[in-house]
Amino acid sequence: MIVYFNGRFMPKEEVKISPDDRGFLFADGTYEVIRSYNGKLFRMEDHKIRISRSLEQIRISGVNVGSLESIADKLIKENHLEDKDASVYIQVTRGVAGIRSHAFSAENMSPTVYAYAHGFQIPAEKWAKGVKAVIMPDIRWSRCDIKGLGLQANVLANQQAKESGAEEAIFVRNGVVTEGSHTNFCAVLNGELLTHPDGNYILPGITRTVVLSLCKKLNIPHREYPIFESQLNDAEECMILGTTTEIMPVVQINDRKVGTGKPGPVTVKLQQAFQEVVGN
What burial class does residue 258 get, using C-beta atoms within 10 Å of its C-beta: 0-12 exposed, 13-18 middle, 19+ buried? Predict the structure, then answer.
């Protein structure tokens, strides 16, 4: 695999990351995952805007965000992924500090930028049949709108979900459904698609943005409005959204089936429209 590391394209095994890198020591950084469909990056401009915002919020400077698109394109070509389903992972840390200290100084320190591309098997069967999710308390910090590297709460929640036979963990904070451990969440109640309002408790998902625009185009009633955990028993449909998840029907939450226990008409309609958008 050919990867990108601090200005160079090289074999992955040649990458050497300092143990003093603040990404290693503190998870001090941000990242993005971008889908590529037949060699074409999807919504790259939106990803650049989001990583720019994350970098600004965590006060990392010195990154040429404009160059990330050409880096991603070259990684797709270098790894012969032009005609495959693929994704690009880009990570930026604050860089290497002389000593381990919680406080940081930008002097004599430059960001570490690492990126790679890989192909993957699309979850076609899960898109068609739906998946199970489980509810868990949202114990993350209150700046979930920053796509930070510190994902331990997400990791443990998703691991617990997988060990219980579920695809995803759905977080609840103060009785309100926020999002999944690595996805956004939507529910259809009384024919209306609802998703948690944009803000500091959820990540502004790229796929979520596309879905909301598709709802408008397809005249599907929709709102960014709180979904209470107590309402999930009455949900006609639920779905999780993400860059690699796309639009995934949730047909069971905990031990209770959602709606008919099969992907619903709103979900299917959005799936079909999304495939038209990405050109599949």
Answer: buried
Residue 280 CA to chain centroid, in angstroms?
A: 21
The one-letter amino acid at 45? E
Residue 186's nearest CA partner among 199, 173, 197 is: 197
The confidence score (pLDDT) of residue 16 equals 96
Which residue ranges form the domains of the chain, and what is each CATH number?
2-119 (3.30.470.10), 124-278 (3.20.10.10)
CA distances (Å), origin 124, targets 121, 128, 190:
8, 6, 28
Report the residue count for the chain: 280
Stretches in the chain below the pLDDT threshold 70: 280
Cβ–Cβ < 8 Å for 219, 269:
no
Q: Which residues are catalytic?
A: 147
Reading the block at residue 12, the tokens are 């992955």
Q: How far apart are CA 26 and CA 17, in angstroms?
A: 14
Q: Under a CB-based contact definition with an 8 Å cutoff, are residues 95 and 81 in contact? A: no
- Global confidence as pTM: 0.94
